[in-house]
UniProtKB/TrEMBL annotation:
Taxonomic classification: Bacteria, Bacillati, Bacillota, Bacilli, Lactobacillales
Gene3D superfamilies linked to this entry: Dihydrodipicolinate Reductase, domain 2, NAD(P)-binding Rossmann-like Domain
Domain of life, per lineage: Bacteria
One of the Pfam families matching this protein, by short name: GFO_IDH_MocA
Name the UniProt record assigns to this protein: Gfo/Idh/MocA family oxidoreductase
All copies of domain Gfo/Idh/MocA-like oxidoreductase N-terminal, residue ranges: 3-118
Classification via InterPro entries: Gfo/Idh/MocA-like_OxRdtase_N, NAD(P)-bd_dom_sf
Length: 336
């Protein structure tokens, strides 16, 4: 069993712990919070013995865990991952892994020097059955004409923002915004399904803090475009569409991928796959990480981890280029 330490005491950490424990491969041993009382309140629902920390150095250096799940505000992911790697812990870090390519470059260098450590960006949907299915279906399409992908979810923090506060996810200081938070899923889609684009442009709607509350990104390829519609200030129920010549692949949602359908040239719809509604959406990634972590010495596992890392590096680069095209500058961009 892998001993799991966690950073971040919001609902997403509960969801990951439940997914990780459901695989039968992880058990929670260690919790860090800025306040010990928060860590204890968070951990009290779990029935295993847990060690609690409110000091990050002690968490990493004295914590008896093998792998850390990091779900802190985006701007802290890099520093906390560096600390974890230096302390000999495997890392599962929530998306987006880093704020910019400078951080990513340093991280990759550190990983090269610590080749026994596995580092995963938790882009949950790329480990789902439907993600692989779409990749396979795209290989079968003779002609590809791009896609129109949408992920717009009204943020539970938006009301706070409208009332005058600046929650982390709407802050340049914390590397927030719609692109980093939700666009990351769609950039993963585009790069995995169509490869690296030739040119990218982002047209955001900026909010009071300078952050993008929503926006449209256009990824240009030689023969087509992939359009990404993202936002945290409204809900969209538009499906994603991937275009062949006459056929269209329909995705219920390009980041959640619960249902994939194929519409032929005559308009006939075939359901290709439907995920069960009640399933914890993080189980597939938890299983994928556990499979590799079970044998980190295996060359095959190392290669898979390297491939995922290479994709994370490309996603990070595209997110940065998109931000640059829209003059969105994070505090983290000025810190190196
Ligand atoms: N995969 C998914 O489906 C999914 C869904 C939601 C979020 N996420 C990711 O999870 C991460 C956390 O998101 P979130 O919405 O939970 O963020 P958040 O509420 O802003 O912060 C998460 C945790 O970090 C700590 N924290 C908050 N502000 C901090 C600060 N100023 N300095 C240091 N620590 C601070 C808090 O824990 P303590 O008070 O215990 O220190 C908090 O519970 C993000 O990277 C997000 O992208 C992923």
């Amino acid at each position: 069993m892998l001993k799991l330490g966690v950073i971040g005491t919001n609902w997403i950490t509960d969801q990951f712990i439940l997914a990780a424990e459901a695989t039968g491969e992880f058990h929670l041993t260690s919790i860090y919070s800025r306040k010990i009382s928060t860590a204890q309140a968070f951990g009290s629902k779990y029935l295993t013995p847990i060690e609690y920390f409110d000091d990050l150095d002690r968490f990493f250096n004295e914590g008896k865990f093998d792998v850390v799940y990091i779900a802190s505000p985006n701007s802290l992911h890099y520093e906390q991952s560096v600390q974890a790697i230096k302390a000999g812990k495997h890392v599962i870090v929530e998306k987006p892994a880093c704020s910019n390519p400078t951080e990513m470059k340093h991280l990759v260098k550190l990983l090269r020097q610590n080749s026994e450590i596995f580092y995963f960006e938790a882009a949950r949907h790329i480990h789902s059955k439907n993600f692989a299915l779409i990749k396979q279906k795209l290989k079968d399409l003779k002609v590809k004409q791009g896609a129109n992908l949408t992920y717009k979810k009204y943020s539970s923090r938006y009301a706070e923002f409208l009332a005058g506060a600046e929650p982390n996810i709407f802050s340049l200081d914390f590397s927030g915004g719609a692109l980093q938070d939700l666009g990351v899923y769609l950039v993963y889609d585009a790069l995995s399904w169509f490869g690296f684009p030739g040119e990218v442009n982002y047209y955001p709607v900026k909010l009071r803090s300078g952050i993008d509350g929503s926006g449209t990104a256009i990824l240009s390829y030689e023969d087509f475009e992939v359009v990404l519609n993202i936002g945290k200030t409204a809900n969209s129920y538009l499906p994603g569409e991937i275009y062949g010549e006459k056929e269209t692949l329909l995705l219920d949602n390009a980041a959640e991928l619960k249902k994939v359908e194929l519409v032929d040239g005559a308009g006939n719809v075939t359901i290709l796959s439907v995920e069960p509604e009640e399933q914890n959406p993080m189980i597939a990634e938890a299983k994928a990480f556990a499979k590799l972590l079970r044998d980190p010495g295996s060359l095959e596992n190392k290669q898979i981890q390297q491939d995922w890392l290479a994709l994370a590096v490309e996603v990070n680069q595209v997110l940065y280029e998109l931000r640059k095209s829209a003059q969105i500058v994070f505090k983290a961009d000025r810190e190196f």
